[in-house]
TrEMBL record:
Localization terms from the record: Cell membrane
Xref: InterPro entries: KdpC
Organism this protein belongs to: Aeromicrobium tamlense
Assembly: The system is composed of three essential subunits: KdpA, KdpB and KdpC.
Protein name per its UniProtKB record: Potassium-transporting ATPase KdpC subunit
Amino acid sequence: MLLTTLSDLGRQSLAALRLLVVLTLVLGIAYPVATWGVAQAFGDRAAGQPVEVDGRVVGSRLLGQSFDGPQWFHARPSANDHDPLASAPSNLGPLNEDLIATIAQRRAEVAQRESVPESNVPPDAVTASGSGLDPHVSPAYAELQVERVARANGLTPAAVRTLVAVHTQGRFLGIHGEPGVNVLELNVALAEAAAGSAGAGGD
């Protein structure tokens, strides 16, 4: 009886080991490799849609980042300083006194920086997205920054507005979401335009 029991345990252990090996090969190796292979058909999407300038990665089209200085379009605020490893909202409710005070401070700062009345400051200029990593701003917030950016880069407002228009993305399928401007892509194009303008001026 004891030998029979040990024999059954041995067969069960061997079957379990075989199953472990098969699942490891299928789920641990074959499936990830197949998924990676399929992803390559979608180009840079498999790599997080990096943005390169002169062969150097400067960011991702999918992740917002901070831009300091009057020469750049600024992103919307972030509760986590645009840290992709700490993606989260502030979790403060709309009636929270700290949030209300923070929004009021941001509105005053944006109005002063852009030389406009506080009533002209759009909501996304003073509120963070749920992830804190939104790479877009509204066309209204981009327009608010045009005069400052043009002045700082020695460009005409019309030229900068053209860049904003080119980098404004419409609603998905024409109905989902809201139009947005990818700040990183816009700033890359802005830097190229400013460099070209400086080069033309030097000639």
